[in-house]
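This part of the workshop introduces the protein records we will be handling. An example says more than a description, so a record of this kind follows.
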Amino acid sequence: MTKKGIDKERKNIEESSEDKILTEEYVDKFKIRAENVHKTYLLGTTAVAALRGVDLNVKDQDFVIIMGPSGSGKTTLLNLIGGLDTPTRGKIFLEGQNISMLSDNQLADIRRDKIGYVFQFYNLLPQMTALENIMVPLHFAGKFSRRGKQKRAMDLLAMVDLDERAHHTPSELSGGEQQRVAIARAFANDPAICVLDEPTGDLDSKTGQMVMNLLR
């Protein structure tokens, strides 16, 4: 290679490195960042585009509400941010880490350590009590003794005004009570990011306001 060619190659490497540093610094500014995210599902032989080129930036301490009509892809986007699914194309960053290409086990670790998720239909374990449902993520995190897990779970139930329903299973709770248990469970491991799919949908206005205050 000639000297001119070497100089050109060095310049390209330097520019590429500088761009990489700038990109990393930019991404690190955000708690959540979505870049040109696409998600396509196959229904039989038909490709259905749920998301087309979504961009999103969320900084630390931001409180963001995603609104749109039914079928517009809100839950799909939340599932991608929450590490429950991966995009067909594009990137999702959580605290500067690109989670788009992680393995299932790596995503499970991210969900356990960093994300609190409230599902639209709660997804409480039906054979467990409210208290036991909240203790599940605490068990996988391995942060507490059994007594410590029970105390943490009871404190969270008290936070959503359900400590007197601790030993009831989901079938013995109303829809709004199940939703509050799901919210308490999402807070169990003090996550860096909370993702909630219609968190006040089954709550009366007073309880809904209480939950919104907790989220803030």
